[in-house]
Amino acid sequence: MRPVLNWSYRHIMSAVVAVDGEKFDTQVPLIIVGAGAAGLCAALAAKEGGIDAVVIERDDVPSGSTALSAGLIPAAGTRFQREKGIADSPAVFAADIQRKAKGEGDRSVVDVVAARAGPLVEWLSDRYGLPFEVVDNFNYPGHSAMRMHGLPSRTGRELIDRLRNAAEANDIVILAKSTAQRLFADSESRIRGVEVVHRDGTSERIGCKAMVLACNGFGGNPELVGRYIPDMAGALYFGHPGNQGDAVIWGDALGAQLSHLGAYQGHGSVATPHNILITWATIMQGGIQVNGEGRRFCDETRGYSEQAAEVLRQPGGFAWTVFDARIAAVARQFDDFQNAERAGAILTANTIEGLVGDMRTPFAAFAAEWNEVENLKLANGQDRYGRPFRAEQACKPPFHAVKVTGALFHTQGGLAIDSKGRVRRKDGGSFPNLFAAGGAAAGVSGSTAAGYLSGNGLLTATVLGRLTGQTAAEQIQC
Ligand SMILES: Cc1cc2nc3c(=O)[nH]c(=O)nc-3n(C[C@H](O)[C@H](O)[C@H](O)COP(=O)(O)OP(=O)(O)OC[C@H]3O[C@@H](n4cnc5c(N)ncnc54)[C@H](O)[C@@H]3O)c2cc1C
């Protein structure tokens, strides 16, 4: 792995300042950098632990990649599942995460997030009134039980707005329009504070007893993406532009251990040119993808993350997701899908001939693929890629197609952490008062895009956010 230090030496040298006895303009117990799901869950947990955090956020209003997401959090053994008769457990969930990650997820972190996800969803619901329900009309690839928990609109905008409301109701200070620029650390690698640059150009130095980095990964930094994720260099970045890799840059300068920088969450179904996420329910319910030549190119159900690069490898870098009215009805639970319909992204026709005409795709090639798949469904058979089909997935008119491309959603590599969320040092052990959560921390997806199990993003944001807030508060109280 090439150290981040190579890419911009000057930037990094000024990113962390060694201090002993530095004077700060203000002193607070806990600083949290970033007001996405991770940062706000950390702040709420710290508050419950008796610690007032200051959350530093570069945007006017908290949004982050959290707001762009579908807001679905996977959790096992919840009462929402029990109410619907869904059998599940943290152990099964942890095994699913590791199966998708090919065993590359840090075991202690995987076990912690799998065990704490259920309590997390119930905590947000019971204590802060977030009305979660379990999605039970389709499942995501790699999950052996229905365990995606979402809010009524199935949007991350609703999730972040509800978290912000909870933070405001609990008098948590969110320092908006303010960017954390440089960290101050003493000779024992204890974080002493941060320099914050406000939107009006002024700056201040805020001292702290502990810090949580919740500023996501480096998806918004093309230079780092090009270096570590060449497959996605130049691809559409669908995440929050403010996620510039600051946690990784600071961590590298501090001597933190960085893990799996090549891992990422991609998505192989973003409507183009409309740039609207098309839910993977379209595939999991029996839809297929073909390229511009009308040909299928893989088992689409392995996962949407690895499908991003697959789609980008097709002629013209696009594909068509094709499905029917029954599948569209399932997809319509997502606001995004409805937006795509309103934007005219979803083609509709009563016959395959009509649909293919609108797609301007060679009919013979498409018809051969379509007929083969529909026959396999009737026979409960498996295709040449190993994708199984079932009779109840048979498609009936009217048919739909949407032109899609592959996109980078967020990076999964980052600061290695221990099971309490403490940032690990390159030379062993952990930093005494530095924590990381969400996209700032190395995820549980291993080293590739294919290792991403649906929901790993918000799983580590919310669960590790809460955990780091709790741990930091306990430490400060001692
Ligand atoms: C389109 C899309 C759909 C997705 N759908 C899902 C889903 O359904 N389920 C799921 O699990 N995951 C999903 N994800 C991934 C998920 O959104 C992220 O993994 C998760 O939101 C990360 O949360 P976070 O709090 O770590 O980061 P963010 O929500 O991105 O928050 C980080 C915040 O830090 C701020 N920041 C950054 N640097 C600084 C700085 N130096 N100073 C001050 N502020 C700073 C940013 O402005 C931002 O507000 C999706 C992602 C995308 C893009």
The proportion of residues in beta strands is 15-25%
The number of helices is 16
Largest sheet report: 9 strands, mixed
Gross geometry:
elongated
Mean pLDDT: 94
How many E strands? 21
Structural class: alpha/beta
Query: How far is the first residue's CA from the last residue's CA?
Result: 38 Å
Question: What percentage of residues falls in helices of 4 or more residues?
Answer: 25-40%
Spatial extent as radius of gyration: 23 Å
Low-confidence stretches: 1-13
Attached small molecules: flavin-adenine dinucleotide
Q: Could you walk me through the main structural features you see in this protein, from its secondary elements to its overall organization?
A:
It is a single chain. With 478 residues, the protein is an alpha/beta fold. Helices cover 35% and strands 22% of the residues. The chain contains 16 helices and 21 strands. Strand 20 (422-424) and strand 21 (430-436) form a beta hairpin. Helix 2 packs parallel to helix 7 and helix 5 (90-100) crosses helix 6 (107-128). The model is unreliable at 1-13 (pLDDT under 50). Flavin-adenine dinucleotide is lined by residues 33-39, 56-59, 62-66, 68-72, 156, 179-180, 214-216, 238-240, 242-244, 246, 265, 277, 409-410, 438-439, 455, 457-459, 461.
